[in-house]
Write a structure and sequence with these properties.
globular; Jelly Rolls; 317 residues; alpha+beta
């Protein structure tokens, strides 16, 4: 059952043996997740489906790929904005990342692995695919519970069938003396749902609806589940897409490694009719998820203070 173990973010214990669909525990957690998404845009999920071995392996794999020569890392180019390699960015000099699309599939994991290691790298391929599959389990469960909380669970299966997963492997170097501590500038995700996981070095901060910055604490075997802009659009503006950033601690001289599994929809994203009423008139027209991402990659999109409204206005012309 969900419980406020922290005054800031809700913590939902998915390890609870009573957490079965239809149980009181499940129903209570559904309501908690909806409230968390509407208030903070995120919550902490306790779920021990990542073994200690996989925990160590995913961060070893992240280090391995981001330690490759820059010429190799730059080969990760994709038509989807922000799905390839990013690094050496003046506003985020401590940050470096690379992405694997369809990471929970053998084709996706193998395609990326052979791009980085033409001779193959079985450890990397198997580790990233196993990790992405395990984290996707959490995303699917959250979507099911979230849809149920609004009474629209009949749409959950079609939504799940149209969902693809993108795994981002991220590295944050410790700041040198006099260097910026900003690991990643404030931003919202363009995903439907994001599931974040980190090593033992903290630094993630998220801003709640009331404007307060919260230091995210990751208990053992936990994830931060976050609503993205696409989820906000789907919910007809009920959900809060939380702004978040990474601030590195000058006292800690260790590298922070983290992962993010981002869900995207391959079908048109539209507000369920059940979420439109007199109190909540239709706010967003149907949109293609990839087009939202492409709009964000434009200068107008990057400057936008309200990406969804600017994009829907643009796409509705």
């Amino acid at each position: 059952m969900g419980s406020e173990t922290s005054p800031e973010l809700l913590v939902v214990d998915f390890n609870n043996p009573k957490m079965n669909a239809g149980s009181n525990c499940w129903s209570s957690a559904c309501k908690d997740i909806r409230k968390a998404f509407e208030t903070h845009g995120c919550f902490v999920a306790l779920y021990d489906n990542i073994s200690p071995q996989l925990h160590d392996s995913i961060f070893k794999a992240t280090q391995e790929v981001l330690d490759l020569p820059i010429q190799t890392k730059l080969k990760n180019i994709t038509e989807k904005p922000y799905h390839g390699y990013t690094g050496q960015i003046p506003i985020a000099p401590l940050h470096e990342a690379t992405g694997i699309d369809y990471a929970n599939t053998l084709h996706g994991a193998h395609s990326f692995t052979t791009l980085m290691w033409p001779q193959g790298n079985q450890f990397f391929c198997e580790t990233t695919m196993s990790f992405a599959k395990a984290v996707a389990e959490i995303e699917k469960m959250v979507v099911m519970m979230f849809f149920e909380s609004y009474g629209v669970d009949k749409y959950a299966e079609a939504h799940s069938n149209a969902t693809t997963y993108f795994l981002r492997l991220m590295k944050y170097d410790p700041p040198s003396e006099g260097e910026t501590t900003l690991g990643l500038p404030p931003h919202t995700d363009k995903s439907f749902i994001t599931v974040l996981y980190q090593n033992h070095i903290s630094g993630l901060q998220t801003r709640s609806r009331d404007g307060q910055w919260i230091n995210v604490q990751f208990p053992a075997a936990s994830f931060l589940v976050m609503a993205g802009d696409a989820c906000k659009a789907w919910s007809n503006d009920r959900v809060f897409s939380a702004t978040h950033k990474v601030i590195m601690d000058t006292e800690r001289k260790e590298t922070r490694y983290s992962t993010g599994l981002f869900s995207f929809l391959s079908k048109t994203l539209e507000v369920p009719v059940e979420l439109v009423d007199d109190e909540h008139p239709l706010k967003f027209k149907p949109l293609a998820h990839i087009d939202l991402l492409k709009f964000f990659a434009t200068e107008q999109g990057r400057r936008s203070q309200n990406l969804l409204e600017d994009f829907v206005g643009k796409s509705g012309e």
